[in-house]
Design brief:
Layout lengths: L2 E12 L2 E12 L3 E5 L6 H9 L6 E6 L2 E2 L10 E4 L11 H11 L4 H14 L15 H13 L5 E5 L7 H18 L2 E6 L2 H7 L2 E6 L2 E6 L1 H6 L4 H6 L4 E7 L4 E3 L3 E3 L12 E6 L5 E3 L7 E10 L3 E7 L7 E6 L13 E5 L5 E4 L2
Parallel strand pairs: 3-8, 3-9, 6-7, 7-8
Antiparallel strand pairs: 1-2, 1-4, 4-5, 9-10, 11-12, 11-14, 12-13, 14-20, 15-19, 16-17, 16-19, 17-18
Helix pairs in contact: 2-3, 2-4, 3-4
Protein name: Spermidine/putrescine import ATP-binding protein PotA
Keywords: ATP-binding, Cell membrane, Membrane, Nucleotide-binding, Translocase, Transport
GO molecular function: ABC-type polyamine transporter activity; ATP binding; ATP hydrolysis activity
């Protein structure tokens, strides 16, 4: 992967608060990259430094081999799409898309051609003469995208681009954004606090915590092999069972000894937690070797899945299980049911922090 953007040792403080703390990142050409994390983790500050709206206290920002750390925002070959879209209400769709090129002095047939190409890319050509007030939320988002893409930036920055949309439209636009990124070949860098959004769209994700990168990985690796309890808890839903590492596995008081795929990475005697995804919890009608007796204390039907809260003797917190509605067992599940559960060692992790 050839590097397009390099963030080298970048830090930024606001008074006593260190918003970004010595971050190193490399983003490839034609890569969809996500900055993910909770509010206050530094992701928007980092995005603003890449865009040129904030200056880092230390470190460098390099784009296509050129140090742009001190280059003004309007001189960088980068476009930023804001969450609010910021469309001009008095202009048509075509006028909004053309605005940036017109400010650069483009006129005539070349301008019309570039605008038509951009509108066609986001499938809005039939709406070119409408005003923003006549558009839906998804259509406004597409106009903002076309306006950003028409200038053919080397890098497109997107700050919470789907935050103003409802859930169903947001899911549709996640796939649409990925399609646009692949078709244009432009590198996309998106900032989001929505882990599902990042998992759906990004080729790689940097999960930030308190101004630092907690883990940088592909979506599947981030979900299946989180490096810490923070990552495991932030990405998706996770069950945690506290115990002590032994030669045989993680010994959990009252439940027994359990294996995990990364047990060998932890020293014997270490206090740690076993991490199991809800969809990895298997439900059984009867007792088998390694299974644990459980009581269904709560149940939620989500359409495609059922979420169960399983009470286990000696544990204050319920174990969460996710069962596909297509599973034959799902029709018999109800609150108050006694059953058994287990999980495979190859899909369990030991996390010591």
């Amino acid at each position: 992967m050839s590097a397009l953007l390099e963030v080298a040792g970048v830090s930024k403080s606001f008074g006593p608060v260190k918003a970004v703390d010595n971050i190193d990142l490399t983003i490839g050409a034609n890569e969809f990259f996500a900055l993910l994390g909770p509010s206050g983790c530094g992701k928007t500050t980092l995005l603003r430094m890449i865009a040129g709206f904030e200056m880092p206290d230390q470190g460098r920002i390099i784009l296509a081999g050129q140090d742009i750390t001190g280059v003004k925002a309007n001189k960088r070959p980068i476009n930023l799409m804001f969450q609010s879209y910021a469309l001009f209400p008095h202009m048509t769709v075509a006028g909004n898309v053309a605005y940036g090129l017109e400010m650069e002095g483009m006129r005539g047939a070349e301008l019309d051609r570039r605008v038509a190409e951009a509108l066609d890319l986001v499938q809005l050509s039939p709406l070119a003469k409408r005003k923003p007030a006549q558009l839906s939320g998804g259509q406004k988002q597409r106009v903002a995208l076309a306006r950003a893409l028409v200038k053919r930036p080397q890098l497109l920055l997107l700050d919470e681009p789907l935050g103003a949309l409802d859930k169903k439209l947001r899911e549709q636009m996640q796939i649409e954004l990925k399609r646009l990124q692949q078709e244009t070949g432009i590198a996309f860098l998106v900032v989001t606090h929505d882990q599902e959004e990042a998992l759906t769209m990004a080729d790689r994700i940097a999960l930030l915590k308190a101004g630092r990168v907690a883990q940088l990985d592909a979506p599947r690796a981030l979900y299946e092999r989180p490096s810490s309890r923070f990552v495991a808890d932030f990405i998706g839903q996770m069950n945690f069972l506290a115990g002590e590492v032994t030669a045989a596995g993680l010994e959990i008081p009252g439940l027994g000894c359990f294996g995990a795929v990364n047990l060998a990475d932890h020293a014997i005697g270490t206090r740690a937690e076993l991490a199991i995804r809800p969809e990895r919890v298997e439900l059984l009608d009867g007792a088998v070797s390694g299974a644990i007796a459980a009581h269904v204390s709560g149940l939620a039907y989500l359409g495609q899945d059922l979420i169960l809260h399983l009470s286990i003797a000696g544990r204050a917190q319920p174990l969460v299980a996710r069962v596909p509605a297509a599973n034959p067992l799902s029709t018999r599940l109800r609150q108050g049911l006694d059953l058994w559960c287990r999980w495979p060692a190859e899909h369990s992790l030991v996390l010591s922090e």
